[in-house]
Amino acid sequence: MPLSYLKSMQLAVALQKSAELTNAKVSLSKNSVTFRPAIEKMRCPSCGEEIEPDTEIAVCNRCGGGQHILCSFGTKKCATCGTMLEMATESEKEAALEAIKAKNKRKPLSDKAVTITQATEKARCAQCNGKIKKGFDIAVCKTCQSTEHKLCAELSMKCGKCGASFE
Domain limits of the chain? Predict the structure, then answer.
C-alpha cells in the first residue's frame, strides 16, 4: 500500500533528523563523549525532554552524564558538569563517517525478486507514492510488476504493493 502524504512527511522528517544526528555524531570528538543507548527512562538535562530507554545518547567522558546527541552538539558542553566538548578533527570525522556507512550499508536486492532498470515513462512509486520520472533507477517487483524508486526498495526490502520480500 502506498504511503499517505502524512506518512511521507513523517518519513522525510525522520530522514532529516537522522542526517542531523549523523552530523552531530561525526562532529563530536570521542575524547569528550561516548555514544550509547540509554539504559532507562531519563530526562535530558539540557532540554528537559524525556529520553526513552534504548535511545542513543551522548555520555560525557568526564562525569558520565547523558543527554540527547543533538543537545550535546548544539550547546557544545555537558549539561551536567559544564565541561566544554571537543569537536572532532577532520581525520576523526572521516573515520566516524566510514564507521556509520559500514553500519548502515544496505543489503543488495535479490535478482530473483526484483528487476533493476531505468524508468521509460512517468509513474508513481509503490512505496512512497512519489513521482518516478523517465530515466530514474527503479525496482520492478517480479511478483506483481509494481515499480518503486530503487532507493525505496533498498530501504524497505519488500514490495510496497504486494509485500513480497526483495531479499
Answer: 15-103, 108-167
